[in-house]
Amino acid sequence: MPVRVTDVVCPFCGTLCDDLECDISDDGKKILEIYNACAIGAEKFMHSQSDDRLVLPRMRQEDGTWKNVSYEEAVEYTAQMLSNAVKPLMYGWSSTNCEAQSMGSKVGELCGAQMDNTATVCHGSTLIAIQDAGVPTCTLGEIKNRADFIIFWGCNPAHAHPRHMSRYSIFPRGFFTGKGHKGRTFVVVDPRHTDTASLTDYHLPVEQGRDYELLSALRVVFHGEGDRLPEVVAGIPKETIIEVGEKMKAARFGCIFFGMGVTQSISKNHNIDMAINVTRDLNEFSKWSIMPMRGHYNVTGSGEVWGWQYGYPFCIDLSRGYARYNPGESSSNDLIERGELDAVFVLGSDPGAHFPFSAVKKMNKLPCVCVDPHITPTTVVADLHVPVAFVGVEVGGCAYRMDSVPIETHKVVDPPEGVLTDEEFLEKVYERMKEIKGV
């Protein structure tokens, strides 16, 4: 007889949906069905049940073939690699729990590593802007219960965060938003006509790379000078900018959600500086917040953990025994491209799929360990692939939602016999490194 497990947290995206339900076999070893999850979240749960899943670490041989090794051998190889490296990179940390992130930091301190997470290629510019200008933000619960004006700028939640609109931003009926989507004004700013844009009241097809200009034009409108704008700004007619700007001023409670279409286009962190200033201007007329659409389910958590450990959220240099921070100098891609690294350790991410090809080629020539339950482009270029338990499926732990609210994920089923968790593997590496270094 199947057993129903409720209040399961989905470890896919930064929305961290916490209303999933799972039917599991009565022996507690097999997930039979998933309810309430989006298609991607459900696939992540079911993929953990794959019959061809790796359950042992594997080492690349000289002829390019793979050989299964024990976890003890994997621990020894990893500990020796990091202990002997002069400048190792420990990258990723976005698809694991905060407990593993904290243990990984101890390993990084012991070997003087360059510590970086996936924000370096997505919302790192957001973190820099927040350090410059602060951030007027809120929780997703406040959005659901209060917001009557929603803007998605440079993001497409219909694909990247499939349940965001139905749970928090557009469709749900909250305490003060009883009409749901009928009581909300919905704007998308995106050069493309995305599936999200097809649902909107206003789609502003901003010219690519000119977000800064459109944000500046909105500030002009807020200050009552809209008539002085050019006839077209960033591909948007002046009349449309004025109309949308006036509606934003009249909103009761609004939020700007923004994605990598803003953070990784021309101007980068300066786009976010301007977006934060737009939000600040709007608070002279009504209540407005701004929030990044974080991708990996715990990329926010890695920034939080390092923030309270080191004072910096990413691009951390521990080579001198204390934390230094200088994006551009201490960021992953720059370190790899300049040839400054002599070892790479990857956990909870896939740089092989997302880094520039030139960086991946250089990474391929370095000693590399990848800790991941999946076979990925990164595991293909690694010398050692260590499969681990799925966080949020086979092991619990803390994760931070995109609004920086901590959510405790739950274990649903047991991992395959003998498979370690991220935290357990890192702890074994840490203890072995202490023996090697005599500390």
Describe this structure in words.
This protein is an alpha/beta fold and 439 residues long. The chain has 3 domains: 3-47; 58-119 and 297-437, Rossmann fold (3-Layer(aba) Sandwich); 124-292, 3-Layer(aba) Sandwich (Dimethylsulfoxide Reductase, domain 2). The protein is built from 17 helices and 21 strands. A 9-stranded mixed β-sheet has the order 5-4-19-18-17-6-7-15-16. The chain has a 5-stranded parallel β-sheet with strand order 10-9-8-13-14. Strands 1-2-3 form a 3-stranded antiparallel β-sheet, covered by helices on one side. Helix 3 runs parallel beside helix 17 (422-437) and helix 4 (124-133) crosses helix 11. It is globular, with a radius of gyration of 23 Å. The mean pLDDT is 96.
Summarize the structure.
This protein is of the alpha/beta class. Helix content is 36%, strand content 19%.
Fill in the keyword field for this structure.
17 helices; Dimethylsulfoxide Reductase, domain 2; five-stranded parallel β-sheet; globular; Rossmann fold; 3 domains; nine-stranded mixed β-sheet; alpha/beta; 439 residues
Radius of gyration, whole Å = 23 Å
The percent of residues in helical segments reads: 25-40%
Helical segment tally?
Answer: 17
Low-confidence segments, ≥5 residues, pLDDT <50? none
Number of strands: 21
Shape: globular
Major β-sheet annotation: 9 strands, mixed
Would you state the CATH class of the largest domain? Answer: Alpha Beta
Helices and strands: which structural class? alpha/beta
CATH architecture of the largest domain: 3-Layer(aba) Sandwich
Percentage of residues in DSSP E strands: 15-25%
